[in-house]
Structure formats: C-alpha cells, structure tokens
Amino acid sequence: MSVLKDNGITDYRHQARKVTIEDFREYDYVLGMDEDNVEDLRDLVKRAAKKGALSGDEAGRIHMYGEFGGKTKGEEIGDPYYGGRDGFEVAYEQVTRFGKALLRHIEVEAAKELGSSVP
C-alpha cells in the first residue's frame, strides 16, 4: 500500500474476485497479467463453450495486459508479493504504463468505428 500512497493513491480498497462466464459477455477486454492467467482464461471459455454457455468467440476478448504498452508484446506483470517493495514499484509502473496504452488502443479502435481519427 505504501507504493500506492507514494503515488497519490490513498483511497484504494482492493477486492479480488474470480472471473465469471458473464464477464466474457459483459466486457470487451478480459486481461491476464501473465501467460498462466491468459491460458486459464482461454480454458474457461473453452469449457463454457463445450457446455453451450458461451460461443467460444469470446476468447478473442482475452489479452495479455502487456500487449498494451509492454516493452515486449508478452511483457508479464510478476506477482509483486515476492519482490518486496521493489516488486510493487515495478508492478505499479507496469500497470500504469499498460493502462495508458490500453486506453489509447480503445480510443483508436473507437475512432475507427466512428470513421474519425484520434490525435
């Protein structure tokens, strides 16, 4: 929490939850922090498609977060818990960088759909 505080984030409340099948219907982007996450998400879609709960096309919504702004296309966010404060600082920097790049990507895609351009 000290890394967040040092970056001006003082009202953060963390609440984790499992990804649900409904998430693939509701969200355009389902992001994994590492390849294991992405593989687990793809397996979830496959299992749901076999049961008829999803079409299987929803797998196209799954992305490695590092695809957006990563130093490499597959840049992963490691679990900061095992890296001490440095691990949290690295994870914060990555999440911030990836988030900005993801928003830019969404702006560009929306502009394409609207037939305009983004500066």
From TrEMBL:
Its EC number is 3.1.3.48. Residues 2-103 form the Phosphotyrosine protein phosphatase I domain. GO terms for molecular function: protein tyrosine phosphatase activity. InterPro entries: LMW_PTPase, Ptyr_pPase, Ptyr_pPase_sf. PANTHER family: LOW MOLECULAR WEIGHT PHOSPHOTYROSINE PROTEIN PHOSPHATASE, LOW MOLECULAR WEIGHT PROTEIN TYROSINE PHOSPHATASE. This is protein-tyrosine-phosphatase. It comes from Friedmanniomyces endolithicus.
